[in-house]
Amino acid sequence: MKNKNNFIYSNNHKHYHTYDYYLNKKYGVKTAKIAINAGFSCPHINQNQNGMGCIYCGEKYHNKNNNLLSPAEIISQFNNKKTALAKKWKNTKYIAYFQAGSNTFAPVSELRKIYESVLDTDKIENLAGIDIATRPDCINREIAGYLSELNKKIDITVELGLQTCHDKTAEFINRGYKLEVFENAYKLLAEYKIPVTVHIINSLPGETPEMMTETAKYIANLNPVPLGVKIHMLYIEPETELYNLYQAGKIKLLSKEEYIDIVISQLEILPPQIIIMRLTGDPEIPEINDISENPTPLWVRKKFAVINDIDKQLIKRGTYQGKLSGFEYLKKNHEDNILNMESENEYHNRLSLTNILSMAKRLFDISIKENGIYADFTMGKGNDTLYIKKACPSCKIYAFDIQKEAVEITKKRMEHENCLDGNVYLIHDSHANFKKYMPEDTELDGAIFNLGYLPGGDKSITTKIDSTLFCLKEALNILKAGGVTVISVYPGHDEGTKEGEKILEFAANLDKKQFDCLYHRLINIPDAPFIIAFQKKTPK
Ligand code: SF4
């Protein structure tokens, strides 16, 4: 398939963030997953009133009760599968994927035995990480605390089953928990810095394409964004409640074309930093020749054909993951102004005239465009760097700070939000030296300064007028036509007052044929912070 791919989170023709790309970048070699059945059951089968589980669940016929394997059995299961894979790929790392049942449905003392068995480096080699699939109602503070402890020894990912964001559907499929249970588990795992993959299913009974797209929108707005998403088509396994409903003519499944359309809409909404761990399922259906016995459509069983068709359609439609997140999303939703806002309060706060930082961002938004190049000349705690990357995931950002602490805080924050990619440069140096770090022919689409000191840091370390002015002049020299530079100034301290006066003087004398300079200030509060913004004119 010939295609010039500008999508940065893929090494091949894919227009979405591939799991292979992520693993290769993280571990530097081929990394394969080894599925382990450690004998976990599921509380939904094991503990609820009728033991029915989800209406599509085939597990209830084999894992009725927890029957946990011993460490030796887990090691042997892992190594047997690894031996088979090692014949296919040399120099490989592995992820132990605890897949069957709900893999945190046991006391922490039991979880410890299970998970720490694979950490025994004498018995298991080349382990890169552990992936734990579970239900949100099997996460509590004690378990999250343990996973965080484990995460310090090896990379952990938790795969949470969501399936849909609609409680009405969840009730119909007998998922057994409401959306708020998922939200609480997600928040808890975020608090303990455990990366999460969210599992969703398309074609659930009663769901329209719009409802499935809303589930992707819900995931796109989670804070922090999840590490990954797994998208599945619904399977109908024999001897399930779903099977009975299907036989009674009450279930309509998506056609392949409908499924592909929905997946593409979901990809367009999901920010590109989210890894797409799956685009469709890989059903192990034994009765594959008898459609009357197993109504899962034949196309669902041909995973690679479905993925190929999705790839072709993405290219044909000129679209990609995240097309409607970030900048396009900002444009599309401009009237609602919902980008990066968590609540109505935040929306009103952002519109407040006294909210200088929000006003600076609104001016900066003018410069945001796909594949743009930006500079955050006062990194601080990374607010602006993160904002720019979220608004424009394909962009390149150079961020500067003279304080190491600022770089470290920003790095952690960007990693936590899964926004730190090869196009984000966090530089521990004065912004006056910025040119040293950019290719010679670099032109900026936008630059932002938030002057003063690091919030919560040493107040004696502030930006200084000489270096600020030098940096500003150099940055304006390489600003593209239409590009914007925004500076927030804090005149409440001596250096801030001097900076404000000098920058205003400089701005007032800039050639009006080359730049438009804007001054935004509350005129009835003399010490209030203010903004100066510059836009380079497009030559006529
Ligand atoms: S959560 Fe999974 S294992 Fe539990 S009942 Fe639902 S499908 Fe079955």
- In which order are the strands of the major sheet placed? 1-2-3-4-5-6-7
Task: Please tell me how large the radius of gyration is.
Answer: 26 Å
Q: Extract low-pLDDT stretches.
A: 333-344
Structural class label: alpha/beta
Q: How does the overall form come out from the CA principal axes?
A: elongated
Kindly report how far apart the N and C termini lie.
41 Å
CATH superfamily of the largest domain: Aldolase class I
The CATH topology of the largest domain turns out to be TIM Barrel
Mean pLDDT comes to: 86
Written overview of the protein:
The protein has 18 helices and 14 strands. The strands form two sheets. Strands 1-2-3-4-5-6-7 form a seven-stranded parallel sheet, with helices on both faces. It is elongated, with a radius of gyration of 26 Å. With 540 residues, it is α/β, with parallel strands linked by helices. The chain folds into two domains: 306 residues, Alpha-Beta Barrel (TIM Barrel); 195 residues, 3-Layer(aba) Sandwich (Rossmann fold), CATH 3.40.50.150. Bound molecules: iron/sulfur cluster. The site of iron/sulfur cluster has 11 residues, from helix 2.
Secondary structure elements and pairings:
Elements: H1 19-27, E1 31-36, H2 43-46, H3 71-88, E2 93-98, H4 108-117, E3 127-134, H5 141-151, E4 155-163, H6 167-172, H7 179-191, E5 196-202, H8 209-220, E6 228-233, H9 241-247, H10 256-269, E7 275-278, H11 303-316, H12 326-332, H13 344-351, H14 356-364, E8 373-376, H15 383-391, E9 396-401, H16 404-416, E10 424-428, E11 444-450, H17 465-477, E12 479-489, H18 494-508, E13 515-520, E14 530-536
Parallel strand pairs: 1-2, 2-3, 3-4, 4-5, 5-6, 6-7, 8-9, 8-11, 9-10, 11-12
Antiparallel strand pairs: 12-14, 13-14
